Amino acid sequence: MKKYNYLLLLLLFLVVITGCNKKEVTDSIKFKNEYESLNNKTNDNNKKYKNLSISEDNSIIYSNEDEIIKLLKNGTGVIYFGFPECPWCRNAVPVLLDAALETGTDIYYFNALSIRDIKEKDEDGNIITTKEGTDKYYKILELLGEEADTYSGLDDESIKRLYFPTVVFVLDGKILYHHTGTVDSQKDPYVSLTKDQKEELLNIYIDHMHEVLNDLCDDKC
After folding, report:
1. How many Cα atoms within 13 Å fall on the side-chain side of residue 220?
2. DSSP SS3 for 214
3. Which pLDDT tens digit goes with each residue over 165-198?
4. Cα–Cα distance, 154 to 151 (Å, whole number)
5. 189: preceding bond cis by omega (within 30 degrees)
6. Residues 6+ apart with CB under 8 A from 56
7. What domains appear along the chain, each with residue ranges and CATH number?
8. How confident is the model at residue 20 (pLDDT cuts 50, 70, 90)?
9. Could you tell me how far CA 104 lies from the centroid of its own chain?
10. Quick one: pLDDT at residue 24?
11. Could you tell me the sign of the dihedral formed by the alpha carbons of 51, 55, 56, 61, in that order?
């Protein structure tokens, strides 16, 4: 019996020690690992992914379709639509996280790549859908409304699409602003943003984060 009790205590001690040493995988660490996992790798087009170094203390919150829909309907926050393999996203993410750190803003992250539809023109010029989006994807587009970008290449401004990266700034269910891509002067996402381009993008993010936080001062502050 004494031997049994000793083994039980030893097992319990090992469990406690292991648990204390095990690092909790938070959303911020998960995001860091997800995006940094592509460092020093190339895509199918033999293009090298931009290397990223993301802090473990970033403000990313992983969100699902229902949470994003609820936020767009009546919530307040900053939403980032993107995915780790997206070269434009890999340029935008470090700047977005810097802006979030400076303003103390949480970023609600949703990878919507797999739920998007795919449309194209056939040889007769008719618009066809080769992959249907999910119902919740179309609901997100509906809630984005005119803020959603026009589906390029279809010559029909009424057809919308969610491009990446898109950052949406929402206050009490009202979309204040959305920003797609990085900056107009960046033509090649595999060429890193210059210092001036980063500053331009940072200011865009920061300005609209302050609108969401509702902490902007007028001339009477």
Report:
1. 0
2. coil
3. 999 999 999 999 999 999 999 999 999 999 999 9
4. 6
5. no
6. 26, 28, 29, 32
7. 24-213 (3.40.30.10)
8. very low
9. 17
10. 73
11. negative
Q: In what order do the strands lie in the sheet with 166-171?
A: 60-62, 107-110, 77-81, 166-171, 174-180
Cα–Cα distance between 66 and 83 in angstroms, integer?
18
Residue type, 127: I
Which residues make beta-bridge pairs with 131? 118
Q: Closest Cα to residue 164, out of 93, 107, 100?
A: 93
> What is the identity of the amino acid at 98?
D
How many Å from the N-terminal Cα to the C-terminal Cα in the chain? 74
H/E run at residue 178:
strand 174-180
List, for residues 136-166, the tens digit of each pLDDT value: 999 999 999 999 999 999 999 999 999 999 9
**For the purposes of burial, counting CB atoms within 10 Å of the CB of 145, is it exposed (0-12), middle (13-18) or buried (19 or more)?**
exposed
Cα–Cα distances (Å) from 82 to 66, 79, 91, 111, in that order, read 17, 10, 11, 5
Distance CA 64, CA 87 (A): 22
List all residues 6 or more positions away from 17 whose beta carbon is below 8 Å from its beta carbon: none
pLDDT at 218: 53
**The residue to which tokens 């602003």 are assigned:** 177
Strand partners, 177: 169
With H, G, I as helix, E, B as strand and everything else as coil, classify residue 164: coil
